[in-house]
Request: fold
Amino acid sequence: MIIKIKKYLQSLFKKISYSFFHLIYGKVIFDDNFEKDNSDITQNIVRKDGNREYKIFKLKGSRLYTDRIHNTALIKNNVLISGPSYKIENNNFANKNNIVLKIGTPRFIRKIKGKILSLLTGGGGNNNYFHWLFDVLPRIEIFNQLYNIEDIDFLLIPSYSKRFQKETLNLL
Reply:
C-alpha cells in the first residue's frame, strides 16, 4: 500500500513539474523542414577514414536538454534539431521518439555565454573508461579538423567525476 502511494505521488509530482515547465518554455515539436530553412544551423561533414562520416553542427541561439543516458536534444525556437539530437532506443538512434517531444524540457534553463562544444555521447561516456577514450575524447580531434579548439569557451562533457576524466582532459 505504501509503495502504491509513493508511486502515485511520484507520478503526480512529475505531471505537475512537466506542466509547470511546459508553461514556461512551451511545447517542443519536430519539423523535418526546420533545419533546411534556418540559416543559423550549419552542418559540416568530416570524413576520417572513408567509411564513416562524422558530422559537426553549429547552432546559434539554441538550447540543449539531456537526461545523460538515452536522450539528448538540441532545440531552437522550440523545434527539435534532428541531426545532432538523439534518443538511444534498443541500441539504435530514434530522433522522433526523443523524450522532449513528450515531456518538454523539465529543468530550468541555464544561460551560458560563449561557444560550447558538446561531447555528449549517451550513458557510456559517463563512467566507462573505454567509452570515454573512444567516444568522448575523439570528438575533440574531429572538431579540430574543421575548427580551432581554442575558439571554444566550454566543453560539455558527460561527466567530470572520475579521475581518468580529469587526468585525460588535463593532458589535452
The chain has a mean pLDDT of 89. The CA atoms of residues 69 and 123 lie 4 Å apart. The radius of gyration is 18 Å.
